[in-house]
Structures are given as structure tokens and as C-alpha cells.
Amino acid sequence: MTKTLRPLTIQKIHRWARAEYKHTGRWPTAASGRVRASDEKITWAALDTALILGFRGLRGGSSLSKTLNKIRPRRRSAKYSRLTIKQILAWADTHYEHYRRWPTSRSGPVRGAHDELWQAVDGALQKGSRGLAGGSSLARVLVNYRSKQWERSGPRLTVTEILDWADRHYKRTGTWPTHKDGRIVGTKDRTWNSIDKALSRDNFGPRGALTLARLLAKHRNRRNLSDLPSLTDKQILKWADTHYRRTGEWPKQSSGPLLNSPGDNWRAIDMAMRLGNRGLPAGSSIAMLLAKRRRKPNLADQSRLTLKKVLAWADAHYRRTGNWPTRFCGPVRGKRGETWSGISEALRYGRRGLPGGITLAKRLARHRRAPYRAKRSRLTVKQICQWAENHYWRTGRWPSHASGRVRGVRGETWLAIDSALREGFRGMPGNSSLAKFLDKHFAS
Length: 444
Fold this sequence. Notes:
The chain is mainly α.
């Protein structure tokens, strides 16, 4: 049975963060590892994800950093102090003497300066605050005043040269380079990370390229994950309708890649809807959109059930049909959005307020003395293929989960076979479906 995680609160996260600060002297980030003050095995990265996506009772749309900004003290001493280029260069020289490299905006605290960060210095140079002229950056100041030490030796780079290296990389590996790909083959000490930084700061690269990813997107049509095209609800619904026609089910987070949009997958689209990326409003999801526009029940929003209510629905089903319901009986009559399959899942995994660990069939056998068939026969790939071929030659079309009874096989339905393929019952490996099975074994 799946373990139910306890809900979280902002107050609890604040309490854990204060304990972390008291223990380490630093406020936690997503990279801070396990939460020391918690009695459960949870990490700060998991808390950050829960705050972003709205898991475990949290509202979503936030982050660990935004949440902690409300309780950690703000820096005040450096806010009003004036800066000069001379002072910044002195700090940079000290940094270079100690670390043997020049500082960047991500170098953290300024050595020898109380409560100063290189990120704040870089921001002041760009915005023109704290007595500085603005329109510059830490990188440009170091280029202008410390150019001999800052610039790498060798000729200045060009777009043509970078693209030539990228083409060779693609020909050798089959993928376009990123800033994580290490040294550039054929050069002495160039790395893709240094190229990406050079492009972003315009130190010795082409103007306006900004990043390696944007350069390749512009000149080599490579998909740039940080600059993806905008999405609309209309486009997502169109893709969802295509997915439903192809597989017989509505898409969800784990439905994999989109056939009509190479490079996209349903998990990335759901994340964009939750966070408000790619032109979408935040706070939505695939499940919420399909519930609103396609009337697909959203499991997260379904009302709580009681065992008494489920048994009453089963009694009504028995009086009407003469048979006790099974998970394959489809919708619950008179109850919009309810299906016997959904009720069986809720009973199995303890969802919607129901006790878990027992199936619908076992529950009816216990409370209504319904006949219970403990184990169905095992299935084989050869057997399913034979049944599917017979169905095709008889009807002119391949079976789907809605094709009803398997002709000539007593007690067998295509819906039961589809469920066995999905969940790994009756000797099947699981994580499949009838549609995927037919695509694999009868692809034209």
C-alpha cells in the first residue's frame, strides 16, 4: 500500500529553516540536503518542489527561496554604502591573489568586505545604484581595468569558428554541444563552458549571441529549452484529443512524448501549466484542463467516499442487473464522474477517505457474500496476438479497450486485457496498454 505523506505547512518549513540556520549559520537552499529538524526523511529539494508545484497540502506557485525571504533578515549595511570602481578593483585583486582567478557575479561573499556579495556589486554596476554610473557589469569592469589578466590568450572568437566546432561535435556525437560538454576536441584549453560564458558576457565572442543555446537555436535550429515557444489551452487540447484518438485514454503527466510536437512531453507541459511558463497562466494542470473542457474526472478534486456509500451503489447495481459490480463495469449509474474502476483503485490504495489494501471484489465478498474468483488465468503475448488477429479478420479493425467481450473466450474482455497490460496482472510486465501492445506487435 502506498504510504500517505503528511501534509506540510509554511509554519513548519519556517521552523525547520530556523533550526538549520541555528545549526549551520546559513539559511537552507534546495541544495542543502536532508532537513535536520524533521523526523521524516525529507530533503530541502523536495520541499522546494512541493512549494513550486503545490504538493502535500501547499498552495504552489512559490519556492523555498521566496518562502524564506519572509523570515530571514535582509541585508541593510551594504544597501546604503556607496561603491567606487577603485574599491571594486581592490576587492577583485584580493580575490585573485587568494583564489588565482577573477571573481564573477556567482563568486559569493566579497573577501575582506563585511556583508558584501559579488552578485550585489554586479547588480549595482548594471543598474547604476550605490553611486555608480550604471550600464556596466563586473565582467566589463575587469575587462577594461584588468584586461591582461582577464582575457584568455589567443585570437578573438567568431560565430563561424564556434559553429564549426559545434558541427564537428554533432557529427562525432550525434548531439549538439551544451555548456556541460567539457573540452572542445581539437583545441588546447577551450571548453564549451568558457564559450558559453564568453558569449553571455560578450568578452571575446560575437555581440548579441547571449548564450551557446541561443546561438545554436538561431543558426542550427537546435531546440532551446530555455526559450521554448508559447503554448495555449487550445493547442494543448488539440494534442490531448489526438492522444485520446490514438490510445483510447486521456493524457496525463506520465504519458510520455508528444507525437505532434517533437521534443515536448506531457510532463513538461503539465509543469509549464503549474508554474505559468511558456505564456500560460500559473496554477493549472493537464488534469484540471481536461476536467473543465473535456469532462474527464480529476482524481485530485473528487469528493470523499465512504464504505457505506460504495456498498449502497453496489446494492443498486445488483438489483438492476442481477450481478455484483466489478472494476470493469464502467460508470456508476446516476453518479456523474464515478466509475467502478475508480472506486476499485480508491479501495486498493486507500484514496478518497476509503480504507486501503483491499479490492472491490474482496470487499463485496466480505460484506455482501458476493462470489469471488481469486485468480484469473495467466495471459501470454502469443495468446493476445491470436485473439487480436481473429478480431481484426472478423471486424476489419483492431480491438480497443472498448471492444467488449473477446469472441470465443469465455469470461474474457478486451478491457480486462488492457488493464492487465497496464498494471502487470496475469503474467504481464505492466506499464503498457492494449493500444501500445498492438503498435508493437502489429506495426505496419
